[in-house]
Amino acid sequence: MAYSPIGPAIVTYSPASGTTFGIGTTEVEVCVFVNGVTNCCTFDVVVNPVANPVTSLVCNDLTNISLDESCELVLTADMVLEGGPYKCYDTYIVQVDRSLPLGNGPWVTGTLTAADVHRVLAVRVVDDVNGDGIAQINENSCWGNINIEDNCHR
Predict the structure, then answer these.
(1) In terms of domains, do 66 and 93 share one?
(2) Which of 89, 96, 105 is nearest to 63 (CA)?
(3) 30-77 pLDDT tens trace
(4) Are 119 and 96 in contact (CB under 8 A)?
(5) Would you state the pLDDT for residue 134?
(6) Phi-psi map region of 118: left, alpha, beta (phi>0 left; psi -120 to 50 alpha)
(7) Is the pTM value of this prediction over 0.85?
(8) Whether 43 and 78 share a structural domain
(9) Does residue 66 sit in the same domain as residue 15?
(10) Which of 46, 48, 115, 143 could serve as a FRET partner for 22 with CA atoms 20 to 30 Å apart?
(11) How does residue 4 score in pLDDT terms, banded at 50, 70 and 90?
(12) What is the pLDDT of residue 137?
């Protein structure tokens, strides 16, 4: 059996590698180009919604949150919600209230920084049923408190 050297392979993906897939079916094509010959393969990636998700949100009463090494953290619903199963966590809006009395607003995006270390903040999770990214009063929500711990490397 003779050995035949293969030139460098060029691989392309459509959609691009690293693309996030939403709920539903996405067709993916992968092509390999080697020595002037292209071979492609297509397949479907199916992302199913969570079966029978809980519709009533329950937030933890008090959660300890540690910031990352850069002293920042974007809160996600899975850090705050208790129980489940819930829908995909990225369908929820997570907000914090830094003003006393906690829980009355203003509610702002759940991004934490070094300025939040050693503070207790109110946090709420809102089911974005409209899909508009805006927390509405009539949307299902819950709230609790978070204690921001100092694990930063400043």
Answers:
(1) yes
(2) 96
(3) 999 988 899 999 999 998 887 888 878 999 999 999 988 888 999 999
(4) no
(5) 72
(6) left
(7) no
(8) no
(9) no
(10) 143
(11) low
(12) 65
Indicate whether 131 and 70 sit together in one domain. Answer: yes
pLDDT digits (tens, 9 = 90+) for 121-135: 999 999 887 677 777
Residue 81 lies in a domain: yes
Q: What range does the domain containing 22 cover? A: 10-47
Domain count, the chain: 2
Is 96 a domain residue? yes
Q: Is residue 17 part of a domain?
A: yes
Q: How far apart are CA 3 and CA 97, in angstroms?
A: 67
| Sign of torsion over alpha carbons 22, 142, 119, 78 | negative
Residue 149 to residues 86, 111, 123, Cα–Cα distance (Å): 27, 14, 15
Is 53 among the domain residues?
no
